[in-house]
């Protein structure tokens, strides 16, 4: 037969199909694991950046160690006043975010009670303000 080379047992071509299969499987594995690795473990409600025409409303609640609670710098004497102020703030802006500033020696139940009042008033977004520890603080 003219033009036909005898078979000498040497491989003259490379079959790339298995290499492509392995590459595609590895690509799929990397895509799936990257999605899992990037997904945060703790869902967080991060604030949006304020644009020039929109300003985020902050409802400031200060809980001192002794004395009455203050809302936006004004003293509230009882729970009804705090609840009314929270409802008024929500009526003004549905995206109102409360920032609670509690003294370190305030009882935990007092802070939780304030959180409950804010929730009943319609404020669902709450943040806590804290000062950094000083060098001589325990």
State the gist of this model.
This protein is α/β, with parallel strands linked by helices and 138 residues long.
Task: Characterize the structure shown.
This protein is an alpha/beta fold and 138 residues long. The protein has a domain at 58-128: 2-Layer Sandwich (Nucleotidyltransferase, domain 5). The protein is built from 3 helices and 5 strands. The chain has helices at residues 17-38, 79-92, 108-120; strands at 58-63, 69-71, 74-76, 97-102, 125-128. It has a 5-stranded mixed beta sheet with strand order 3-2-1-4-5, covered by helices on one side. Helix 2 (79-92) packs across helix 3 (108-120). The chain is elongated, with a radius of gyration of 32 Å. The N and C termini lie far apart (95 Å). The mean pLDDT is 80.
- Find the CATH topology of the domain at 58-128: Nucleotidyltransferase, domain 5
Q: Please tell me the overall pLDDT.
A: 80
Instruction: Give the SSE string.
Output: HEEEHEHE
Please tell me the CATH architecture of the domain at 58-128 by its name: 2-Layer Sandwich
Number of strands: 5
| Span of the ends, CA to CA | 95 Å
Helix segment tally:
3
Q: Categorize the overall geometry.
A: elongated
Key words describing this protein structure:
138 residues, alpha/beta, Nucleotidyltransferase, domain 5, five-stranded mixed beta sheet
Question: How is the secondary structure organized here?
Answer:
Blueprint: H1 17-38, E1 58-63, E2 69-71, E3 74-76, H2 79-92, E4 97-102, H3 108-120, E5 125-128
Helix pairs in contact: 2-3
């Amino acid at each position: 037969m003219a033009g036909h080379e005898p078979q000498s047992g040497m491989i003259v071509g490379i079959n790339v199909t298995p290499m492509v299969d392995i590459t595609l499987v590895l690509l799929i594995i990397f895509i799936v694991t990257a999605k899992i690795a990037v997904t945060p473990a703790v869902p967080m409600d991060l604030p949006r950046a304020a644009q020039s025409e929109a300003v985020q409303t902050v409802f400031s609640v200060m809980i001192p160690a002794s004395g009455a609670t203050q809302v936006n710098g004004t003293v509230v004497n009882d729970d009804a006043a705090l609840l009314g102020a929270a409802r008024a703030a929500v009526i003004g802006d549905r995206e109102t975010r409360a920032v609670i500033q509690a003294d370190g020696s305030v009882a935990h139940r007092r802070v939780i009670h304030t959180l409950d009042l804010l929730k009943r008033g319609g404020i669902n977004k709450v943040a806590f303000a804290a000062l950094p520890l000083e060098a001589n603080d325990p």
